[in-house]
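hiii so my PI (J.) wants the whole complex modelled not just the main chain, which honestly fair. so below is everything: two entries, each one labled with what it is. i double checked the lines twice but i was tired so who knows lol
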Amino acid sequence: MKFGVIIFPGSNCDHDAYWTAQQVAHQPATFLWHDSPDLQNCDAIIVPGGFSYGDYLRTGAIARFSPVMESVRKFADGGGLVLGLCNGFQILCESGLLPGALTRNLGLKYICKSVTVRVESTDTPFTSACQKGEVLTIPIGHMDGNYFCDEATLAELNRDDRIIFRYATPDGQITAEANPNGSLENIAGICNAGRNVLGMMPHPERASEPELGGTDGLKIFASMVGAMAAR
Amino acid sequence: MSTSSIAAITPEVIRDHGITADEYEKLKSLLGGREPSLTELGIFSVMWSEHCSYKSSRVHLKRLPTRSKLVMQGPGENAGIIDIGDGWACAFKIESHNHPSFIEPFQGAATGVGGILRDIFTMGARPVAIMDSLRFGPIKPAPGTTQAELHKNHSVMEGVVSGVASYGNCFGVPNLGGETKFEPCYSGNPLVNAFALGLVRHDQIFYGRASGEGNPVIYVGSKTGRDGIHGATMASEEFSETSEAKRPNVQVGDPFMEKLLLEACLEAMQTGAIIGIQDMGAAGLTCSTCEMGGRGGTGIEIELDLVPQRETGMSAYEIMLSESQERMLLVAQKGREGEVFRVFQKWRLDAVEVGRVTLDGKMRVRHHGEVVAEIPNDALTEAAPLYKRHLERWEPPVQREMPENIKLVASGDLTENFKQLLASPNICSKRWVWQQYDHMVQTNTVEAPGAGDAGVIRIKGSNRGLAMALDGNGRWCYLDPRLGAMHAVAEATRNVACTGATPVAATNCLNFGNPEKPHIMWQFSQVIDGMTKACEELDVPITGGNVSFYNETLGEGIYPTPVLGIVGILQDVHTAAKMHFREAGHAIVLLCGESPGDMADVESEFGSSEYAKEVLGAVWGYPPELDLEQEAALQRAVVQMIQAGLIESAHDCSDGGIAVTLTESTFAKRVGCRIDLKSAGLPPEFVLFGEDASRVVISCVKSNLPRIKDIGVLYGLHVTEIGITGGDGVQIQVDGGLAVSASGVELRLAYESALEHALRAE
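here's the output for the full assembly
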């Protein structure tokens, strides 16, 4: 399957996602320039982490207007796989591809550390290679990861099994201590109603090789590859 | 300083520019006897400032070793470059941004990071790691520290850390840590030293040189504003009560712009149309123009009307002296400008031809068509003033022998003292700092902050890795500048060796007080002597760095604080050692050189330790002895043991002594240790907390002990089995009597929460 990794001005995890898709998951990969609507026949789009347009305004607020995002929206509407990582998650929320918003961390500081997240649903092309309830160790690195949405949306997310990852203790308990940023219900990742768009704050590309300290993140890429093969 | 009101160049105007009467005479003679224009005076003032000209330090810096087989570029360029094998080279440097960080902590620190990153990518290298070495005043109540001072220190620290984080995180370069230390002398003079390292292929290195008559000179990046005018001059004087008024002299950083500039510059370099390139850092357009011409043996002529400007009505003086960030000057091949412009257009950055290369060796500046400055490059660079300042031997106002009122105990439980030491700001975990830094972006980080003695990254597409560490010990340099500087080199190289990497090169940041004071210059000279000796013995040439003088506020100077950045090469990054015990049942072994000297030496050296300062409440004596031959042998032995796969963990003994070293190794995997130390008749406090040099604690599976001993003997080391890993927490006996006993939870609490606790205590 062919991965497309978008480059916005200010993306800085674009090369990391590209490397993981191509060198670790052994899939063809290409970069997609923000200014072009051409998705180059990719099978899956990664909206990478970083600071698109410096994030001087609300995170993702400018990137959503990029020509490439209009194509991503159509691609997603057609059932294409879209994975938003960190800043990518923020951009997907701003674009309306995912509900809710990511606000400033509760502690008001940037946090970079390894966290543990519980897989809440394996019924997505991004988590099909995981076990339900499995705890993955994946790093976060963000200033604005505090997920928020209104009550109705939260109820809908819960009802439709669209909360995919929650911050948890290493043994899988959902506690306040395990929540690094104040996210509602410890939410670390959600998907859209069609289950083909996933946004997550943790960086699976940072936990995909043993020399970097862990390979749990590779399960996301492996799930996507498996899901595409099954299509 | 406001220039609009200046009508004529009076002695007062000259003095305000930091130029002495003698220097002014020299300036005139370099201009062929004529008076300078105000713009020219401004240009001379920044280029001849201590910050840019190194006028007080140059005579001493010449003594430093700068060459080895691996050095491809030594001092004099934007960064040093070493060959790291497989066709790769790495560019690296450390620089200070102390003065701006005191006046405006967030922006001062942020632009410090921005400046060092530009120094790296202007050489064609993509930055792959940064680190920082920070010094602040006390953050915990202590005798002699007022509440107002504490508050100020907290806010300076908060601002600096956020500034470093904000710039590096947005730019997208991992911060691998560094060091954060606290002493009263840094209250009015915080130190912010930023290190950056980048990778470049051998055949893609660029230099800051202008060549080829008629070639276009192109300005790229941010527009020029009125910010940072006279930043370099500000960094060349002491602070007074009015220093806050200098806030407008501090530049404002835009890391997003720098990220675009990085990508655009590296892409433009790929076109092959760029001949030379240099960032506009200190002294902005002035410095890049005359230095590029100077290095290339050419001249550069520019028209300021063409310079992209953020504000209207800027004078030539302001444009030439602005230190607006995120700007570069480059020289392209005539006829191929279009290729360069296309790349910058793609990244939506300004790229404007502002002038051309000449052959007359001069910097000629026009404004509205009129020549406003015409100065030979040499007058600004090579012919800048050079001072052999007076040196005066200096004794710190401390006792050299242990004070009579200090009593070291003969035996007993020292657990409480140890926990106090573990929670002291200089020893405790700096997680609060480095957790605010993205240390994983670029997915190369093998050893993040807190994982090992040095930061380690892999090089994608190669088996190799790079290890890097920063180290300095101001208190030791205060007690003995020469020996203290030797220790800084020894410890930074030892940190790198403890990962299994061979230390190969160094960069230095030399932070001192006012060089016009003979005792400060003596400290400087001593430090250079010590550094020279240690760098030679440990085989790490200095490839560049920076000198920061005038770190004084109201006449109160800092400890002489040289900070060393060391880079090492790992042939196989997969063998890199970490500092943590891995599992129970491993042997714990102390590798060291000579045993400590006699009781008088021991007592005198103990006064320079963290324990003496923090627990005994006094500083006296000298830094520990250092035998560089033994140090070199120790480092080689450790590297050999790691590369042979014989050991499970390695951690050097430094601040806080062996008790701290052992305890730090227990945290990550929650594997405790049981230790039995022999006192050899020395006080147990010294045995546990003494900071003797040239010691490394390793752990290994027991079956590897014979081979480890063989290697140790080969290198003339003492190899002593001191205990075993396992259990919870740390139990240390001295001569069979329990001296430290604490659970993992207690120790972690003391170590992990101390910094946050101190910062939140207001």
